[in-house]
TrEMBL record:
Transmembrane segments: 6-24, 31-48, 83-112
Keywords for the protein's UniProt record, in alphabetical order: Membrane, Transmembrane, Transmembrane helix
Descriptive protein name: Stage V sporulation protein AE
Lineage: Bacteria, Bacillati, Bacillota, Clostridia, Lachnospirales
Record bears the keyword Membrane: yes
Database matches in Pfam families: SpoVAC_SpoVAEB
């Protein structure tokens, strides 16, 4: 049942974003920023953690989950290191995901030889 809930919630988030892309003039980069900021905002209000526990990977994989991870990392680093935690907490909390994205993107570019759109 956990897999089904994760699939449905993740799909619903993606569907809402697709509708937003199709019906507004917002560029994909701005939509990505909105998602990250929304995740951080919901995390700061204490709303994202219960949603994440219920939805599992359906809530952690989309960009709003990344925003929540950034917020949680900064929050923990501030508690531990004080003001300097603002600068290193988010990167420390999300470094594995960022590194994975960079490594796998590089490997994919070697295999598939990307081209610029014309």
């Amino acid at each position: 049942m956990d897999y089904l809930i994760a699939f449905l919630i993740g799909g619903a988030i993606c569907a809402v974003i697709q509708i937003l892309m199709d019906n507004t003039k917002l560029m994909p980069g701005r939509i990505m920023v909105i998602l990250v900021c929304l995740g951080a905002l919901l995390g700061s209000l204490g709303l994202y953690e219960p949603f994440e526990k219920w939805a599992g990977a359906g809530a952690t994989v989309p960009l709003c989950g990344f925003g929540n991870s950034l917020f949680q990392g900064i929050k923990e680093a501030i508690d531990k290191d004080g003001f300097l935690g603002i600068f290193n907490g988010g990167l420390t909390a999300t470094s594995a995901g960022i590194a994975g994205a960079l490594i796998f993107s590089y490997i994919a570019s070697l295999i598939f030889s990307p081209k610029m759109k014309g």
